[in-house]
Amino acid sequence: MDFSFTDHQKLIRDTVRQFMEAEVRPLVKELEREEKFPLGLLKKLGEMGCCGMLTPEQWGGPGLDTLSYVLMLEEVSRVYTALSTALGVTNSAVQAPLAQFGSEAQKQKYLKRLASGEILGSFCLTEAAAGSDAAGIQATAVARPSPLATHHYLLNGAKTWVTNGAHAGLYIVFAKTDPAAEGKGITAFLVEPTFPGFKIGRHEDKMGQRSSPSVEILLNDCEVPAANRLGDEGQGLKIALSALDGGRIGIAAQAVGLAQGALDESIQYAQQRRAFGKSISEFQAIQWMIADMQTELEAARQLTYYAAWLKDSGKPMGSAASKAKLYASEMANRVAYKAVQIHGSVGYSRETDVERMYRDARVIPIYEGTSEVQRMIIARDLLK
Length: 384
Prior knowledge:
Blueprint: H1 7-24, H2 28-34, H3 39-47, H4 66-79, H5 81-101, H6 104-116, E1 121-124, E2 140-145, E3 150-163, E4 170-176, E5 186-191, E6 198-203, E7 214-225, E8 229-230, H7 236-272, E9 274-275, E10 278-279, H8 284-312, H9 318-343, H10 353-361, H11 371-383
Parallel strand pairs: 1-4
Antiparallel strand pairs: 2-3, 3-7, 4-5, 5-8, 6-7, 9-10
Helix pairs in contact: 1-4, 4-5, 4-7, 5-6, 5-7, 7-8, 7-9, 7-10, 8-9, 9-10, 9-11
């Protein structure tokens, strides 16, 4: 395995890095303070090709490899984690399953708009009583036939923690067409916010990533055309799990980027801050923390690149993606903790980036499969 970057991958990394430093970093504190969704920045990233990196060219995306996508998410998350969350969901959780399981008409209607950033996508699986237990969802979908064929479905239920939910133009919603069949009775649907019976509910008051809103989606006899069913009836859980498998590589990349940003801030602060007549970077205690941060970060980065390489090679990558997501997400929390510690009382202030990173990092071991779920997947692969 050779993880040396091609010239094109370096160009992607450097272009995104320049954009994040020049156009995004000056706005982060204001956006976080006002809890304002960065829709304008997402539109600009869409113009750069970042909203549909994995989508094939025939559907409006650049059709790039997974490692290029990982490099993009790293650079975005290094500066602004909330922005990378929005990008990750619309790229991997929505466009990837749509490209894999969607009909030609569905891809023609939605993929090009998603890939360009014209609209954002949302992934609606989690419910108040169904998180890690995806098969336990309670939302239902009942077919309402016309004399000749199924005309539409009526969806009922509520989805929670929906990323991009207040701003999306397309939602992949999972509901049970056969409740008695449990996980085998789940079906996926492509839902537009203008469909009758669709409503945005309450916004979550979150610890971190506050400018990436998570909302409740309410479905009250929501009318979804039969043409908007994604895949076959009963195929929904398969679609959801395939999206999550690939998405975990993106979450690992997000964790690596956040940790890199925290390390960068820590090195800069340690070299500037003076105590007892010298820079605190000269103290062994600080040096050891920085050394541990870098070592863990590089280990997580290599796990992430390996999972991306497996995916691009067409090899099984479910367990590798779980290992990358597990280690990188927990590493990011340890690195963010040390970053605040190096900054001391200043790191506890909302005026510093490391304080925001510390809060942003906490959710990463939870969403798109908790650390406990990742350990189950890894162990099951080893013991099968």
